[in-house]
């Protein structure tokens, strides 16, 4: 989720969620946004975002990495995660859902 405009885009990761795959998927997904919707992102400290430095350079966005164990510092992200659970339970294998399903849920 873009932290200023609250735009939500879900990234399809059909192969794996290694940091490189997450990085490449986010760069591709964020690249289709118009510049005025690319303000900043707020992330937790999960291993899947360990390659965020490259993301900072690619879409020209600031990325805020929250302190560990402080989810209240990214409240909109936590709220969005909760809303996503209405569509996908915590143990859902998202590989069974294609990019169209993810886009539909994001809208």
Summarize the topology.
Blueprint: H1 19-31, E1 40-43, H2 52-57, E2 62-65, H3 75-84, H4 99-106
Parallel strand pairs: 1-2
Q: How does this structure look, described?
A:
With 107 residues, the chain is mainly α. It has one domain. 35% of the residues lie in helices and 7% in strands. It contains 4 helices and 2 strands. It has helices at 19-31, 52-57, 75-84, 99-106; strands at 40-43, 62-65. A two-stranded parallel sheet has the order 1-2. Strand 1, helix 2 and strand 2 (62-65) form a beta-alpha-beta unit. The longest helix has 13 residues, at 19-31. The N and C termini lie close together (12 Å). The mean pLDDT is 78.
How many strands, which pairing sense, and closed or not: the largest β-sheet? 2 strands, parallel
Task: List the helices and strands in order.
Answer: HEHEHH
Number of domains: 1
Largest beta sheet: strand ordering: 1-2
Question: What ranges have pLDDT less than 50 throughout 5 or more consecutive residues?
Answer: none
Q: Distance between termini?
A: 12 Å
Q: What gyration radius follows from the Cα positions, in whole Å?
A: 13 Å
Q: What gross morphology would you assign? A: globular
Number of helices: 4
The helix content is 25-40%
Mean pLDDT: 78
Strand content: 5-15%
Structural class comes to mainly alpha
Number of strands: 2
């Amino acid at each position: 989720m873009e932290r200023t405009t609250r735009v939500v885009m879900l990234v399809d990761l059909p192969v794996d969620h290694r940091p490189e795959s997450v990085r490449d998927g986010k760069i591709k997904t964020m690249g289709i946004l118009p510049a005025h919707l690319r303000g900043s992102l707020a992330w937790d400290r999960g291993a899947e975002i360990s390659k965020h430095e490259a993301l900072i350079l690619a879409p020209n966005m600031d990325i805020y990495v929250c302190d560990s164990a402080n989810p209240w510092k990214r409240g909109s992200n936590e709220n969005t995660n909760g809303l996503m659970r209405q569509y996908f339970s915590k143990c859902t294998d998202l590989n069974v859902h294609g990019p169209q399903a993810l886009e539909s849920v994001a809208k």
